[in-house]
Specification:
The chain is α/β, with parallel strands linked by helices and 367 residues long. The chain is 38% helix and 19% strand. The chain starts with a strand and ends with a strand.
Length: 367
């Protein structure tokens, strides 16, 4: 079996604008890409390329000009060798592109085996609890209303993306905890907003509020101050989502005690292959690896397969919990009435692209 073609199908993704922070506006109508890797035996693999922040055409040049010549004619079952070759050009190609190709290859291999991808990796569980992950809201009352809504739906955990101002953020956390009570697991994602002194202040406050983890309080490269912060806080700190070097930068974070929990996803880290390695690396130190959302529906499916195949990822992130990132599939990942998401059961990725929707919104096909 050989890879016979690589193409990018662009179609329109209409999405209302939403915020992650005061100035971080996402959504709006933009192209979403479908990477399709074809083989000479008629089996194709697919992945989505693009997000509510970066449109699919943003990545097109790297895929077609740099990646395609490297993988044409290769055996799609040589996933590890292909990923290693592609990682060598990560200075020229976004990790999102490498990740999309890697997902396609895993999709092909799952279809070849007649098994969902998590079975090929080594299934560890059949379901995990979801947590609702907030957008940015203008008012404290909106944060409270959202958290209460998901509590009433039976979800087990909720994460707050606040304003980036320590005083306001502490008050948001306090108000949400008062509203949902002690039963709901709460997390805070500060989105790299603080310096050491303010990160320490917020961390001590949410410790008192019994938050489960404290995510990305400092800049993604600030190993020095993360080490200082962890020495002074009891609450687990989770970082490395955008740490330099991606998988190959993780050893220093673990061995220097700069994070309590590691973080990654298929888009930022470059696919299923390095995300599995990251989870296993963390597991070797008896640490958790909590998987970040993937930015689009098929990336989240790929994340879900890894989640089900490793022992040390506790939750599945639904971001934003409004559902704004859901688009392009006949049926998307859903949270059941008990607050859990379940392992895919069909071969490959196991979720069907809505090709009728793609055809109606088709913009271009690049080869």
């Amino acid at each position: 079996m050989k890879i016979s073609n690589v193409k990018l199908i662009l179609f329109s993704w209409p999405c209302e604008s939403w915020k992650l922070g005061p100035t971080a506006i996402l959504g709006g109508t933009k192209p979403l890409g479908i990477v399709e890797i074809e083989t000479d035996e008629g089996i194709s693999g697919h992945a989505f390329l693009g997000s509510a922040r970066f449109s699919g055409d943003y990545f097109a040049k790297g895929l077609i000009e740099f990646v395609k010549p490297i993988i044409l004619g290769r055996n799609p079952q040589d996933i590890g060798a292909i990923w290693k070759n592609l990682w060598k050009i990560n200075r020229d190609v976004f990790t999102h592109v490498i990740g999309a190709v890697d997902i396609c290859l895993w999709d092909i291999n799952g279809k070849l085996a007649g098994q969902p991808i998590h079975r090929l990796i080594g299934t560890c569980k059949s379901r995990v609890p979801a947590y609702s992950s907030s957008t940015y809201h203008e008012t404290k009352e909106a944060y409270v209303e959202e958290a209460v809504h998901f509590t009433e739906l039976g979800w087990k955990a909720h994460k707050i993306h606040p304003h980036g101002d320590p005083t306001a953020d502490i008050e948001i956390c306090r108000r949400v905890r008062e509203a949902v009570g002690k039963e709901m697991t709460l997390m805070l994602d500060a989105c790299w907003a603080y310096q050491f002194e303010t990160a320490l202040r917020v961390g001590r406050e949410i410790e008192e509020l019994d938050f489960y983890w404290y995510e990305d309080p400092l800049a993604e490269e600030d190993v020095y101050n993360y080490v200082k912060l962890l020495r002074k806080l009891e609450i687990p700190v989770i970082s490395t989502e955008f740490a330099p070097g991606r998988f190959y930068g993780m050893a220093q974070w673990i061995t220097q005690y700069a994070t309590d929990i590691v973080r990654g996803d298929v888009a930022v880290f470059g696919g299923i292959t390095p995300l599995i390695r990251l989870c296993h690396l963390a597991d070797g130190f008896n640490l958790k690896c909590e998987i970040h959302h993937g930015g689009n529906s098929l990336n989240n499916v790929a994340n879900l397969h890894v989640t089900m195949a490793v022992p040390n990822c506790e939750y599945f992130e639904v971001f934003p919990c409004t559902g704004a990132n859901k688009f392009g599939l006949v049926e998307d990942i859903e949270v059941d009435r008990d607050g859990f998401v379940n392992a895919p059961e069909r071969p490959g990725l196991g979720y069907e692209i809505d090709w009728d929707l793609v055809d109606r919104n088709h913009m271009a096909t690049l080869e």
